[in-house]
């Protein structure tokens, strides 16, 4: 059970009580700040890759792990039928306070409706948590997809994180997939229970899609080893 520290931070920001940022770190990286204003970014401040994903949206849309609802709210303002889901109660409370009409406290695997577009943004593959769960999540997403539907998802190839200054690499080829990270975060001195967070390189995502009859194409590369992919029924 999480303490919903992420949700509490979003609620603080929404309620005008912004005093500090979330601190994150992983098993392979040092502490870093995740600025709360970034989690409330307007369209103009979104990475190009997210703007592109929003431009490609069509029909009835599901925003998975919607957070504070930035993508959903923009889509709603353009007249789309959009539903945001998040496994953080605080995040969903914030979405509602910001005016999102359809926001539900729910984990992806609990969703049963079908959609023309399913969005998973800000390292969307993170929600799969670990390599061994990728097929289960992709099969579930496939069930939620209308026949001509699309999944728009972003992630990064983080092999660069294993390089040292001389360009050498310390990737351990005997260990699990290099994009599987233990992710930690704290806010106002309180630490969340550690969670798994998965970064998938494009080729690995594509192969996983193909094995269950999904087509996966790269839409664009981002600025730092990240990419946006579009997954459809093949
Ligand atoms: C990195 S944040 C991204 C938030 C938002 N999409 C954005 O771009 O600002 C990931 C979000 O996914 C949510 N999440 C994690 N696992 C989830 C799951 N299994 N089902 C639904 N939401 C989940 C978290 O609570 C968090 O709000």
What does this structure look like?
This protein has 234 residues and is of the alpha/beta class. The protein is 24% helix and 30% strand. It contains 6 helices and 12 strands. The strands form 2 sheets. Strands 5-4-3-6-7-12-11 form a 7-stranded mixed beta sheet, with helices on both faces. Strands 1, 2, 8, 9 and 10 form a 5-stranded antiparallel beta sheet that branches. α1 (5-14) packs parallel to α4 (89-97). The radius of gyration is 17 Å and the shape is globular. The protein starts with a helix and ends with a strand. The model has no long low-confidence stretch (mean pLDDT 95). S-adenosylmethionine (SAM) binds next to β4. S-adenosylmethionine (SAM) binds at residues 6, 39, 64-67, 70, 85-88, 91, 107-108, 121-122, 127. InterPro entries: Methyltransf_25, SAM-dependent_MTases_sf. Keywords: Methyltransferase, Transferase. Residues 61-149 form the Methyltransferase domain. One of its GO terms (molecular function) is methyltransferase activity. This is Class I SAM-dependent methyltransferase.
